[in-house]
Amino acid sequence: MKYDIIVIGSGPGGYIAAVRASQLGKKVAIIEKYSTLGGTCLNVGCIPSKALLDSSHHFYDAVHHFEEHGISVENPKFDFQKMIDRKAKVVEQTTGGVKFLMDKNNVDVYEGLGSFEDATHVKVTKNDGSSEIIEGTNIIIATGSKPSTLPFITIDKERIITSTEALKLKEVPKHLIVIGGGVIGLELGSVYKRLGAEVSVVEYAPTITPTMDKDVSKELTKVLKKQGVKFNVSHGVTGVERKGDEVVVKATNKKGEEVVFTGDYCLVAVGRRPYTDGLGLEKAGVKVTERGQVDVNNHLQTNVSNIYAIGDVVRGAMLAHKAEEEGVVVAEYLAGEKPHIDYNLIPGIIYTWPEVAAVGKTEDELKEAKIEYKSGKFSMRALGRSRASGDIDGFVKVLADKNTDEVLGVHMVGARVADLIMEMAVAMEFRASAEDIARICHGHPTYSEAVKEAAKAAWDGKPLNA
Q1: Long-range pairs for 126-134 at CB < 8 Å and ≥24 separation?
Q2: Which position among 64, 69, 299, 444 bears the catalytic label?
Q3: Which terminus of the chain is less hemmed in, N or C, by CB atoms within 10 Å?
């Protein structure tokens, strides 16, 4: 079979690229080695983790917050297996939706491991060992990423686990040790903390979420500590050993002293690595970087002119929505259009509670670039909507150019900020000023009023409700 475009990998980047290419009149095939479509995000990442985050959040509210709303529930209990089953059902529905999209858009789906024979031919090796070769004028690599580990850690997938195993445990840990204070570690740590586990986070950097704005890291640390999560920052892990049903983690603190943590599960959440295993890039002559990423230019084109790569397997943030946008960009570029993507305006989100969201530059990045800026900050506690719901933790911070007032960065901690951040992403796409946002009427009472107030604080230093 010959295709205009072959997509290897059916995660958010891959399947969206296939849909868009088909919409633009291309004959498209997609190759997926697993029996379900959707990649890491839909199967063992974004979607199942949010399902468990929501289930555990409901339980946590029943235990800790229902009473203050006048709702009495005697001894709330949870059925962990039902939570896992519900998560599986959500995954099944979502991945089934991707299969529907492939059928609707006449995309041919090949189940098996895709590997290059040369720059235009891809072998599909099926689970039964049989194989076939298909030809593509253009090929898009969308093979995503896998969890990283440390060289001295052996992941046994039982007690020493990655995020994949953490989403399908048979029991709630008594003491979950999380190595890594980034997005994945904090989200999954939150799930099990809400369900009664002791959770200890061990992070090498001096703060959690080290790539985010310092005010965000400080606030999130404060609220998660209040929920009972224990943080051990500036701790470098030196060893992880399983002893029966016990896991011992050794680390060195900033004073050079050894610290020992003992728990029944250890989640290794130290990031993810590009996944190109078995892809046969060398047969096609495709180059990779020192970090193992497929090397691409500004059009996401590799050194081999008809081969492109998107998502976690290339440079940049490993985010599903970034992969989706890149999939659209490549499909449109191959159809002769002139798409663009602004990497500065890709939001970063953490789905703890309160949520965390950011877009644009941090204060440290603006200082490093020697850009003069002004900052406006507004506390969620000052909002009527926050007091009504009881979600008073967090803030919105707007960073704007000191001379032009253009919004350069926005950082939020609070209820529903995962959704609120998009207002500012849109505004920044159109190069709005802080005054522009401050002068737009926001509904009352809503969480979004914090955005308006923070923008006014950045513009003229005079928020109305603080």
Answers
A1: 134/1, 134/2, 134/3, 134/6, 134/29, 134/110
A2: 444
A3: N
